[in-house]
Design a protein that fits this description.
Layout: E1 3-10, H1 14-25, E2 30-34, H2 47-52, H3 54-72, H4 88-112, E3 116-125, E4 129-134, E5 139-149, E6 153-155, E7 167-168, H5 170-173, E8 182-186, H6 190-201, E9 205-209, H7 221-234, E10 237-239, E11 243-250, E12 253-259, E13 265-270, E14 272-275, E15 279-281, E16 314-316, H8 327-341, E17 355-357, E18 362-367, H9 370-376, E19 380-386, H10 391-395, E20 402-408, E21 414-421, H11 424-436, H12 441-445, H13 456-464
Parallel strand pairs: 1-2, 1-5, 2-3, 5-16, 7-14, 8-9, 8-14, 9-10
Antiparallel strand pairs: 3-4, 4-5, 6-15, 11-12, 12-13, 17-18, 18-21, 19-20, 20-21
Length: about 475
């Protein structure tokens, strides 16, 4: 006999746990099925983001930044140290403690909202039945009026670079026992840049091989140029247009065979190799025969604009569907679907989802780039302002980067905001908010910003759209 629920969520990551909690808030009887275990072997909710992605990587980024600043920034403030040292084991333990705190926090939220958690592998059967192979060896059968698939994503493993002791994915890069002398990275995307930065700051020689000819092709070209310049100053060796063809683990390290941008054969020898070429939807084994749910050629669950699948009463959200694989995108989809199930007008505006790379300097953007506007033939005006002219940034000894605002040339509606610099992961939300309310560059320019603050760069960039910035020559 099946246990009956109003909503069953498969996956306890960002999209899944938001969907479960919101549905419960709206009075639904909810179950959430999740298979993940923590390092201690106990159930750990939160998905890749919380356990081995967003949160732990930011913990290491912050720890490594403190260490880097001791040797590269603090002297400007008159602060000196003798022989700075890093205790990698203690740094990793701090990261693990943060992860455990937050996975436990989600479990507490489930309990408070009366969400029933099942720990094991869930599979959707026809008729909105979910079978759960629990970690204790038993199998339970659940039935629901609505099922939300939130299976998340997995690291892509290359056929010639299988994961092991020396060739690792992001999970392995978060738990290295010591700083490798030489770290190779395949892929100059978010994961490659962030984790490459962590170990570079701690003393590793880091070489990043990127297959594309352009650096950060998805970002604004000016932003990418400034970011690349700053990363080069830090000692990150980023090689573009490199096609990796083979790897081999030998006594002296991992030998990486690739062709460079000129087509010449090259070999890179490293102690550890991080493969960060992207992620794929974790849909293998998720669907039994006859569910009516369809998958794309990339293994993603096919959904409509409101996250409905082809099967009645079955929805899908987060990394396992189309769109950017971002935790906050999953948050919003999970909440929207829960509200749609409850008869409310759930909605996600995919045009205002911010993108952030938490390097130093940070890179962030929302909306369209100049290159996209040009290719689409959209008339626009641009205003930018450098952090080097912002008193707070200079006082912090972090003057690198700028803010750019793009607005429609006729309506003045903000179409995009692009930033590179200190703490721009926070500043980008001024652009998100302005765009969400269909605001104009003039609206943003007329809002009073505190002085001194980094946000003044946003203010002056908005003013520069109409060539009236006070602190730069227009």
């Amino acid at each position: 006999m099946s246990d009956q629920f109003d909503v069953i969520v498969i996956g306890g990551g960002p999209a899944g746990y938001h969907a479960a909690i919101r549905a419960a808030q709206l009075g639904k009887k909810v179950a959430c099925v999740d298979a993940a275990l923590g390092k201690d072997g106990k159930p750990a909710l939160g998905g890749t983001c919380l356990r081995v992605g967003c949160i732990p990587s930011k913990a290491l980024l912050d720890s490594s930044r403190q260490f880097w600043n001791m040797g590269h920034l603090f002297a400007q403030h008159g602060i000196s140290f003798e022989k700075p040292a890093i205790d990698v084991a203690r740094m990793v333990a701090r990261k693990d403690a943060i992860v455990k705190q937050f996975t436990g926090g989600i479990a507490a939220l489930f309990k408070a909202n009366k969400v029933t958690a099942y720990h094991g592998f869930g599979q959707l059967q026809p008729g909105r039945v979910v079978t759960v192979k629990q970690h204790d060896g038993t199998t339970v059968e659940l039935k629901a009026t609505n099922v939300i698939l939130a299976a998340g994503s997995d690291s892509i493993e290359l056929p010639f670079a299988r994961f092991g002791e020396h060739i690792i994915d992001n999970v392995g890069a978060l738990d290295l026992p010591a700083v490798p002398k030489r770290l190779g990275v395949i892929g100059a995307g978010v994961i490659g840049l962030e984790l490459g930065s962590v170990w570079k700051r701690l003393g590793a020689e880091v070489t990043i091989l990127e297959g594309l000819p352009d650096f950060l092709a998805a970002a604004d070209a000016e932003v990418s140029k400034v970011a690349a310049r700053e990363f080069k100053k830090q000692g990150l060796d980023i090689r573009l247009g490199c096609k990796v063809s083979n790897t081999e683990v030998k006594a002296d390290g991992v030998h990486v065979s690739y062709t460079d941008a000129k087509g010449a054969a090259q070999t890179l020898v490293v102690d550890k190799l991080l493969v960060a070429v992207g992620r794929r939807a974790a849909t293998r084994g998720l669907l039994a025969e006859g569910t009516g749910v369809t998958l794309s050629e990339r293994g993603q669950i096919v959904v409509d604009d409101h996250c409905h699948t082809a099967a009645e009463g079955v929805w899908a959200v987060g990394d396992c569907v189309r769109g950017p694989m971002l935790a906050h995108k999953g948050f919003e989809e999970g909440i929207a679907v829960a509200e749609l199930i409850a008869g409310l007008p759930g909605h996600v505006n995919y045009d205002t989802i911010p993108n952030v790379i938490y390097t130093e300097p940070e890179v962030a953007w929302v909306g369209r780039t100049e290159e996209q506007l040009k290719s689409e033939g959209v008339p626009y005006k641009a205003g930018s302002f450098p952090f080097a002219a912002v008193g707070r940034a200079v006082a912090m000894a972090e003057p690198a980067g700028f803010v750019k605002v793009l607005a429609h040339a006729e309506t003045d509606r903000v179409l995009g905001m692009h930033l590179v610099g200190a703490n721009v992961s926070e500043l980008v939300h001024e652009g998100v908010l302005t765009m969400e309310f269909s605001g104009a560059a003039d609206d943003l320019a007329r809002i009073c910003h505190a002085h001194p603050s980094l946000s003044e760069a946003v203010h002056d960039a908005a003013m520069a759209v109409h060539k009236r910035a006070i602190h730069k020559v227009n």
